[in-house]
Structures are given as structure tokens and as C-alpha cells.
């Protein structure tokens, strides 16, 4: 387990989602507050216990503005902004700070009205992250965010024979898991043919290869082991973490078929003292189907180039899958309000606590999972954060 000079172990003691999906008449700050209140209630702790705050993606001074809105005055803060993986990276930083005695209870919180803002005309869909710095050399040639992922997927198909049907299986199985989740935005089953016949967004991706756009927020509360006895829920322990940044410009990415999860995952598993084959389920950032496939390879659940064959056999399903992946339906079907990495941690904790209802992962004897992993990706495979969690 994560420990520091103080020898303290670190647990996740509270998790929650705000209202998600189609949320009208709310602000991002409203969703931050809603998720934070629910996570504190889940833990059974007073907000005065919180002395650390991690937040990114809102306003100019994210943790300052969010802390003010929530009525917190933290003595430890983090706003590491590396895209969707920021939450796994900040969870790692928070766990280290708690273990070292620099904080006692750290709240990670996020909220976004990305869908509602576009619908109301307050913003437009962002095709790129701007054209300054190193990006200026690629944006003029059509390197939109989706195009970057599509190009990487095409490289994997060229080098390893991965098929578009195999990529479609990721979307099909994510939707099957979402069908078991009453909080998922889309629950109707889809077939491989339906995925392939949709409008092309960026070759080889059709619409259903891409994540949905939703509103929503999430919160995760981490605390030192001495606080566990005061909590109303069973602790989920932070066993190991890893982080890695790879590139900003696609021209600086050495291998389009290997994501930064290959490094963050290796570090997290080594620090946790566990092997990939011991993991009972995985929550993987899935803005696009290729992300799931290549991350499975890079975390060591299958060999490089074997991801296509791995996913096409139904291994990702909650019911009957050998390695249930994105048990809530993921960003492809459940919710994706922007920086989705925090939602991965919420779902992983719920699974380990046995609170996932119809989508609950169990082994053949009916036992709850013992180990889970959450792996976030940021940018266009620019960054990765991996967190190994365990119960008991």
C-alpha cells in the first residue's frame, strides 16, 4: 500500500457522481458542489476534515475558485493539468502527500456542463486544443483531436492487422455493460454492423467509435488510515500509482502503437506488488475505441498487437467476460463530460465495495473483486496515470 515517511496507509473513503447525462440549468460549480457533498456523505465525514483539494478544468485558478465555492480553505492543493488522466495523476500526488503527512484528507472534484453549453450556444465543439507552441506545426494540416487518435488507430491496423470490426467490438461491449447501469446515458444495445454503418467522423472511426458528450461531475475523497474507523463505508486502499508524459506534437511520438500507459502501468503494478493477471477488472479511459484496445496491451493484459484478438471474444463484458472493462459503460456509453478520469476511480471503488448493482463484477464463486485498476489518458496519448486499488 502507499506509505510515506510517516508510515501512513491511504484509502479512498468516499466517492460520488453529481447528476450526469443531460443536465440543464446547472453550472460546472453546481456539479462540483453536488459531487463533493455526496462524496463526503458517502464517507460520513464532515467537510472540516478536508485539508487538501485537487481540481482542474474549471476557470483560471481551478483549485482556488473551486475551494472558495465549496467553502474550503485547504493547506494542500494540486491542479496538475495533463488532460483526462489528470485525476489519476492527482490521486497519486494526493496519496503521496497523505502518506508523507502533508495532508490528512484530500478531495478530488470535477464538474462540467460540456453538453449543455454546446446546446445553449455558450461554446462550440473543440476540434483542437489551439495552435500555439508545438501545435502550430500540425494544426494547419488538419490535425484535429479526433484525427490524431484515428491516425494512431490506423497505424496499429497497419502494423498488427487490427481490424475495424475488432475496434467496433469495444463499443459493442461498452454498451452491453452500460445496459446494466441505470446511470448510463445510452443503454440500448448496439451491434458491430451498427457501429460500422454510422457516419464517418475520422477514418476509421464512425460515430459510435467516439465517446458521447454529456454533463456531469464526480468526487473522490482520499484519507489517511486513522480516519477509516470514522467512515461509514469500507476502505478501498491505494496500493500503487504511476504517471508518465509522452509527447505534445505527434511528430515527437516514437510509436503510435504504444501509449504512455506502458510506463505508468508498469510503475503502478510494481509499486503495488501485483501482476496484471491478478487484476479482477479495469476502468480505462475510452474517448475512442482504440484507446481501450491499446491500453489493454500497454497495461500487460495481452501482448503488443494482440489487443484486437483480445477484445473480439467478449472478454470486456461484466457478464461472462474474463476481464471486465469499463463496467459502467465508459465514456463510449455512460458519460463523458470532458476530463473523465475521475469517473474511472469512482466506478473502481464502487466495484471493490460491491455497490455496483446489476453490473457488479463477481468471480465464478460469487466473490467480490479484490483488485482493480483505473488508467486515465490525457490529450492525444500525451499523458497517462494508473492507480491500482484493493479492498480488505
List keywords for this structure.
392 residues; globular
Q: Can you offer a commentary on this structure?
A:
It is a single chain. With 392 residues, the chain is an alpha/beta fold. The protein has twelve helices and eleven strands. The strands form two sheets. Strands 3-2-4-7-1-8-11-10-9 form a nine-stranded mixed sheet. The protein has a two-stranded antiparallel ribbon with strand order 5-6. Strand 10 (371-378) and strand 11 (383-391) form a beta hairpin. Helix 6 (164-178) crosses helix 9. The longest helix has 16 residues, at 28-43. It is globular and about 55 Å long.
Taking Cα atoms only, what radius of gyration do you get, to the nearest Å? 19 Å
- Main beta sheet strand tally, sense and closure: 9 strands, mixed
Give the proportion of residues in helices. 25-40%
**Overall pLDDT metric:** 94
Structural class: alpha/beta
**What are the segments in which pLDDT stays under 50 over at least 5 consecutive residues?**
none
Short description:
With 392 residues, the protein is an alpha/beta fold.
Amino acid at each position: 500500500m502507499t506509505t510515506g515517511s510517516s508510515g501512513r496507509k491511504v484509502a479512498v473513503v468516499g466517492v460520488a457522481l453529481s447528476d450526469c447525462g443531460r443536465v440543464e440549468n446547472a453550472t460546472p460549480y453546481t456539479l462540483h458542489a453536488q459531487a463533493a457533498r455526496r462524496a463526503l456523505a458517502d464517507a460520513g465525514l464532515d467537510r472540516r476534515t478536508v485539508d487538501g483539494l485537487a481540481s482542474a478544468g474549471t476557470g483560471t485558478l481551478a483549485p482556488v475558485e473551486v475551494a472558495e465555492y465549496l467553502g474550503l480553505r485547504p493547506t494542500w492543493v494540486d491542479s496538475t493539468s495533463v488532460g483526462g488522466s489528470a485525476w489519476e495523476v492527482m490521486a497519486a500526488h494526493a496519496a503521496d502527500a497523505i502518506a508523507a503527512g502533508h495532508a490528512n484528507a484530500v478531495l478530488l472534484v470535477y464538474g462540467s456542463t460540456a453538453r449543455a453549453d454546446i446546446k445553449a450556444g455558450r461554446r462550440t465543439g473543440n476540434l483542437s486544443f489551439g495552435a500555439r507552441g508545438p501545435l502550430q506545426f500540425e494544426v494547419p494540416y488538419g490535425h484535429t483531436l479526433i484525427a490524431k487518435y484515428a491516425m494512431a488507430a490506423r497505424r496499429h491496423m497497419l502494423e498488427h492487422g487490427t481490424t475495424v470490426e475488432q475496434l467496433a467490438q469495444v463499443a459493442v461491449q461498452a454498451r452491453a455493460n452500460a445496459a446494466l447501469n441505470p446511470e448510463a446515458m445510452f443503454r440500448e444495445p448496439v451491434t458491430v454492423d451498427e457501429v460500422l454503418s454510422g457516419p464517418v467522423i475520422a477514418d476509421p472511426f464512425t460515430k459510435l467509435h467516439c465517446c458521447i458528450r454529456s454533463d456531469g461531475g464526480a468526487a473522490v475523497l482520499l484519507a489517511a488510515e486513522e480516519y477509516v474507523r470514522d467512515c461509514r463505508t469500507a476502505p478501498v486502499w491505494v496500493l500503487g500509482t504511476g504517471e508518465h508524459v509522452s509527447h505534445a506534437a505527434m511528430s515527437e511520438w516514437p510509436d503510435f502503437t504504444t501509449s504512455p500507459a506502458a510506463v505508468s502501468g508498469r510503475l503502478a503494478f510494481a509499486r503495488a506488488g501485483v501482476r496484471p493477471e491478478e487484476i479482477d477488472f479495469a476502468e480505462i479511459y475510452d474517448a475512442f475505441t482504440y484507446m481501450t484496445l491499446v491500453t489493454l496491451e500497454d497495461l500487460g493484459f495481452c501482448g503488443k498487437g494482440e489487443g484486437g484478438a483480445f477484445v473480439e471474444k467478449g472478454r470486456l463484458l461484466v457478464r461472462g467476460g474474463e476481464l471486465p472493462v469499463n463496467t459502467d459503460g465508459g465514456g463510449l456509453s455512460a458519460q463523458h463530460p470532458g476530463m473523465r478520469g475521475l469517473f474511472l476511480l469512482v466506478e473502481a471503488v464502487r466495484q471493490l465495495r460491491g455497490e455496483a448493482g446489476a453490473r457488479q463484477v463477481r468471480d465464478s464463486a460469487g466473490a467480490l473483486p479484490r483488485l482493480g485498476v483505473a488508467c486515465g489518458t490525457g490529450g492525444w496519448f500525451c499523458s497517462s496515470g494508473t492507480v491500482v486499488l484493493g479492498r480488505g
